[in-house]
Amino acid sequence: MKPEEEILKTRYQTYALVWVTLILLTGITLSAAGRELGGWTVLIALVIAGTKSGLVLTYFMHLRSERLTVFKIIIPLVLAVFLVFILLTFSDLAFRGGVK
Amino acid sequence: MALMILRSFGKMDDAKGLVAGEVRDATGARLGMWLFILSEILLFGGLFILYSAYRYKNPVDFHHASRELDVLLGTFNTIILLTSSLSMAASISAIQRGQKKLSMVLLMATIALGLFFLVNKGFEWGTKIEHGIYPNAPALLARAKGEILFFGLYYVMTGLHGLHVLVGVCVLLVMLILASKEKIRSTHFTPLENSGLYWHLVDIIWIFLYPLFYLIS
């Protein structure tokens, strides 16, 4: 087996279906932003953006056909590091008090 | 990144296969590309945290400033980039199946969509600059602090993203030439795969930029 055949041949229909889903999710983001949902708006927008990224990562970026374990480690690891940055920044912001 | 793609390209060889003694490691090449992509995610991640912190401190100003952006143009550009990701992925599928012509046409479509995105972005920036909204502009500096921060972040983040689109277009142009010379083919397409990974990364970044800048309600 040649190493480059490790990447699965994805059917065009699968890609087209992913694209349709991405466009639909964009439409949902747009219409959700037009409503008065208060604090939920940001959360909804981020959840949808996260879902869209997940689709791109899984299908377009072929993560579903990567067999090497290291791929399953490095990506959650980087996201965890990023989460720590976010938590540290916001715990700082929330407890700073009077500083602008 | 260019090094990564060149590395994955390996030693030149004829259509028959590998030159004696040549070692190719497609998985290793992809892993290298992924490490680069993850570092890019942290680069943009830092900017997203900066954005979140300033928005948390200036929610009303961010809301007012965001309303001045063209939602229609932003949505249109989102659709353009999502579609370019589709043509990019399909281009790789085509080369895997040995459909060279189709692959090249899809690659050209991806490049065209990328350029289209940049042209729209140019018009968008142009309009803002005409209205006196650009970094350090007197009209902008007279506004509320949060609005100055919003437009500063808008120019830095969409600017850095636009730069990535431009680099992506250049990389894909090189891939187009390589494909035409049969240097990328059904048995050796890792450079195209890695360029695709980069292109999709640029798409993912825009997926987050779009609601955070255009859709603050």
Structural class of chain B: mainly alpha
Query: What is the gyration radius of chain A calculated from CA atoms?
Result: 19 Å
**Number of E strands of chain A:** 0
Rough shape of chain A? flat
The low-confidence parts of chain A are: none
Quote the average pLDDT of chain B: 91
CATH homologous superfamily identity of chain B: Cytochrome c oxidase, subunit III, four-helix bundle
Shape of chain B: elongated
The tally of structural domains of chain A comes to 2
Helical content of chain A (DSSP H or I, runs of 4+): 55-70%
Number of domains of chain B: 1
Secondary structure layout:
The complex is a heterodimer of chains A (100) and B (217).
Chain A: H1 12-33, H2 40-60, H3 69-94
Chain B: H1 2-9, H2 26-57, H3 59-66, H4 71-96, H5 100-130, H6 138-141, H7 145-180, H8 190-214
Helix pairs in contact in B: 1-2, 1-8, 2-3, 2-7, 2-8, 3-7, 4-5, 4-8, 5-7, 7-8
Describe this structure in words.
The complex is a heterodimer of chains A (100) and B (217). Chain A folds into two domains: 1-67; 68-100. Chain A contains three helices and no strands. The termini of chain A are far apart. The model of chain A has no long low-confidence stretch (mean pLDDT 87). In chain A, helix 1 packs antiparallel against helix 2. Chain A has helices at 12-33, 40-60, 69-94. Helices cover 69% and strands 0% of the residues of chain A. Chain A has 100 residues and is mainly alpha-helical. Helices cover 78% and strands 0% of the residues of chain B. Mean pLDDT of chain B is 91; it is low at 11-16. Chain B is elongated. In chain B, helix 4 runs antiparallel to helix 5 (100-130). Chain B has helices at residues 2-9, 26-57, 59-66, 71-96, 100-130, 138-141, 145-180, 190-214. Chain B has a single domain, classed as Four Helix Bundle (Hemerythrin (Met), subunit A) (Up-down Bundle). Chain B has 217 residues and is mainly α. The chains are: A mainly alpha (100), B mainly alpha (217).
